[in-house]
């Protein structure tokens, strides 16, 4: 830590000039701290004269959203930069290019995606992204299947499991996704109008908690593939043409369902949010149709590409046995719905919320949306065996709306 200091909008200029050979001699700098995640500082550094820009992301030794009382492994960016490099190769550039990772300052310098918008905010502005389902299903199949034992030499895969052990970040997920939302814990944030409801339908439901316990220990023990580890719509940059996945600092070898489930949950929450806060009936209808279609296509394209790719890349003889790939995929899909349910509950009554729901301006509509979100999530967890196609997700949404 001796060479480490926290950067700011002024000091980042000298830092960036020394650390990467990117800007011209006559650059005129403009900088902005744009990080709005829970953990890091993120700077955009622009040369307004030559119209060039770059992003620098610096880890803090604590959780930004909580302050210095919640210390956190400052080296997490190293895992992130290594995962981005792997994902870049596997997906032909569905993640940004990394220029440098500084082991003393814990700073990652990467390509600026200024033509893109964070998907969560794009959806909240009622934009639609027609190529998203196709591109994200590619990302999922390539990053998950191609890093698994189905494909990799088993010794090589075990070495990767070891390389990507990420205990502190995994502990956050184990606590914030799979434990605290299901009981009375200090870090939970539950708005007044939901306190009684949460106690009744979440905290007191022993059947629900048993299912969540099964999912939690699957997360902890199933070293199936190299995960992104936090694949919500705030970790995705998008525009009309392409998709870029960022922020895999929670990555480790875990169950494929964790990435797919996080994504599905955030698509469902985007739908619930669109219903509650788009006032113009035509815009609302269009946005909801888009979200239904994208939800359905994401799962269906994932299924189709997963089965097709399996045949092209499988190396393990026993994985080639007739019927095994369908068995394997079914298991992934069932747990995907379970993970999605946990993510939806934790984003409503846990520590880290989402703007989709918290930002609904009308109090009654917000409480109603959050109750629907929790009720749908419980159904997804308890009946997750029924969720193996896109239609099953969209039928559930239609049942509530
Ligand atoms: C303390 S970190 C809270 C959440 O933010 C990250 O984006 C992850 O989703 C984590 O659970
Ligand atoms: Mg993040």
Structural notes for this entry:
- The protein has 401 residues and is an alpha+beta fold.
- 51% of the residues lie in helices and 12% in strands.
- It contains 14 helices and 12 strands.
- Strands 1-2-3-7-6 form a 5-stranded antiparallel beta sheet, with helices on both faces. Strands 8-10-11 form a 3-stranded antiparallel beta sheet. Strands 4-5 form a two-stranded antiparallel ribbon.
- Strand 10 (236-238) and strand 11 form a beta hairpin.
- Helix 2 crosses helix 4.
- The longest helix is centred in the last third of the chain and has 33 residues, at 281-313.
- The N and C termini lie far apart (52 Å).
- The model has no long low-confidence stretch (mean pLDDT 97).
- Magnesium ion is lined by residues 37, 230, 235, 247.
Strand and helix map with partners:
Layout: H1 11-19, E1 29-33, E2 41-47, E3 52-58, E4 62-63, E5 67-71, H2 76-91, E6 98-102, E7 107-111, E8 117-118, H3 119-124, H4 132-145, H5 154-163, H6 167-176, H7 195-203, H8 206-221, E9 225-226, E10 236-238, E11 243-245, E12 253-254, H9 256-277, H10 281-313, H11 324-349, H12 355-358, H13 363-382, H14 390-400
Antiparallel strand pairs: 1-2, 2-3, 3-7, 4-5, 6-7, 8-10, 9-12, 10-11
Helix pairs in contact: 2-4, 4-10, 9-10, 9-11, 9-13, 10-14, 11-13
